[in-house]
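Input record, target 12 of the design panel.
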């Protein structure tokens, strides 16, 4: 390793079984600094959202009978990119060394004298059964676990699988990559002594909101697969522990399990809503519709931030405005006290929380999380006549706030902190999946997400319902011809999640 021919490095990283919560912190670290990412079919593409702008992203997925790149081509690609001095992240579903051909890629890098690091991942061999309520070992049932691949053709004479030994081996058996060969595999197991009544469970898309579990026995599972149209990717579990699913099925019983929900936000901000819905079991796919960019008049914004200490109030309408304001502020000043005696108002708890991240107090927070609520809060607080107020907000925001404050006698300046532009990249493939599979519900968290989603002109699935974060967003939806099926009573992310949960009758 010390005789590496370049400063490049390749991380052979296990991307886990699908649930973003099971991706290791080390994988997140290397993705956040990657220059090249080569990823597989079974990797959750949401991981790519952690990559820096400009990262070269290469899909090298392999499905049964469909290989984007042959293994030899992948090996060559990793060597070329690493030798060029790049920080390469090779994302592999599950664990790179468990039937992931990571060993072959490591050998190719080692033979070329290049630096590499192996980052183990959570394997679907353990995670998928666990999410289906099946412990692969249990003191009262088994103390032995065998993991094998079904990717080989069991009918060929030179198969490396010893079915004679596998069939009579005690304990739990977990098979990866073999659902399309389940008939031949179970036939060979029975032929060599496996009891026909042995319980079997197949777990498809384990650990994700798309998870499906099919149960049967060695004698009938192949027939059930055919009747159900059950397809890969799936993990098979053989053994008495399958019976424990009746009591331990925790994942598939969550309130929103089986509901397909689309989240439309900026790529960086979708996480809170997505995470909350996924915790309730929903199958969530993010379609980022807007991207946050600096304002058109950056110099003017900087001048207003520089003079912020001259104002009586600074009003923030969104977390984006807070972040943009203080990014500029700390480019101009070293000390938070440079903000002077200005008081701070914030619309919504998320905006207030973002202000507090900068260790500043929020003096005014309206009960209603819209511009009208700020006006009401100021009127309740006292007169604003002749007070200087700085609004830090988005370009092309509604004019309600400055207009109404001016009517009350305030001297108002607008600091355009950022602008939203359409997000057209579909790195995760979520837009394609939406077009192909549809969804049960789509969420909108601002007027701009509505406008920009409609501009994508994706097909609108039959029976698709909508959820809005509040009345302003709902108004935009109606103006664009959309029906509002769900509207949050509390106009923030927790309120929207609660409204969606209630809508589906999920207790």
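The sequence produced for target 12 reads:
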């Amino acid at each position: 390793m010390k005789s590496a021919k370049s400063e490049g490095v390749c991380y052979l990283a296990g991307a886990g079984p699908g649930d973003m919560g099971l991706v290791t912190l080390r994988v997140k670290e290397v993705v956040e600094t990657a220059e090249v990412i080569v990823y597989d079919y079974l990797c959750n593409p949401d991981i790519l959202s952690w990559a820096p702008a400009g990262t070269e992203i290469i899909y090298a997925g392999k499905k049964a009978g469909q290989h984007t790149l042959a293994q030899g081509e992948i090996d060559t690609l990793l060597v070329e990119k690493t030798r060029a001095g790049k920080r390469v992240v090779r994302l592999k579903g599950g664990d790179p060394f468990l039937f992931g051909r990571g060993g072959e890629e490591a050998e190719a890098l080692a033979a070329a004298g290049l630096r590499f690091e192996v980052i183990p991942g959570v394997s679907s061999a353990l995670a998928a059964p666990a999410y289906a309520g099946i412990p692969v070992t249990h003191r009262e049932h088994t103390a032995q676990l065998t993991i094998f691949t079904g990717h080989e053709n069991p009918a060929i004479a030179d198969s490396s699988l010893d079915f004679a030994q596998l069939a009579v081996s005690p304990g739990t058996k977990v098979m990866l990559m073999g659902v399309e060969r389940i008939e031949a595999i179970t036939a060979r197991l029975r032929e060599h002594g496996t009891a026909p009544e042995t319980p079997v469970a197949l777990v498809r898309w384990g650990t994700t909101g798309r998870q499906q579990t099919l149960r049967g026995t060695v004698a009938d599972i192949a027939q059930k697969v055919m009747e159900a149209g059950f397809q890969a990717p799936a993990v098979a579990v053989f053994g008495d522990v399958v019976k424990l699913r009746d009591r331990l099925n925790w994942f598939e019983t969550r309130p929103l399990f089986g509901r397909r929900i689309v989240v439309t936000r900026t790529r960086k901000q979708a996480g809170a809503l997505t995470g909350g819905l996924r915790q309730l079991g929903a199958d969530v796919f993010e379609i980022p519709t807007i991207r946050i960019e600096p304002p058109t008049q950056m110099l003017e914004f900087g001048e207003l931030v520089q003079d912020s200490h001259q104002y009586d109030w600074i009003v923030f309408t969104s977390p984006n405005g807070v972040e943009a304001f203080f990014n500029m502020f700390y480019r101009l000043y070293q000390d938070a006290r440079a903000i002077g005696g200005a008081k701070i108002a914030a619309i919504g708890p998320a905006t207030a929380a973002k202000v507090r991240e900068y260790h500043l107090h929020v003096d005014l927070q309206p009960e209603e999380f819209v511009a009208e609520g700020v006006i009401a809060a100021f009127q309740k607080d006292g007169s604003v006549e002749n007070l200087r107020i700085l609004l830090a907000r988005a370009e092309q925001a509604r004019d309600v706030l400055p207009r109404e404050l001016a009517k009350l006698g305030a001297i108002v300046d607008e600091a355009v902190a950022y602008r939203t532009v359409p997000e057209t990249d579909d790195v995760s493939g979520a837009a394609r999946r939406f077009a192909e599979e549809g969804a049960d519900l789509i969420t909108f968290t601002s007027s701009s997400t509505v406008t920009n989603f409609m501009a994508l002109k994706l097909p609108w699935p039959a029976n698709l319902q909508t959820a809005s974060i509040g009345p302003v967003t709902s108004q935009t939806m109606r103006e664009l011809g959309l029906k509002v099926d769900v509207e949050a009573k509390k106009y923030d992310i927790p309120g929207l999640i609660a409204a969606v949960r209630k809508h589906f009758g999920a207790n």
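The chain has 18 helices and 22 strands.
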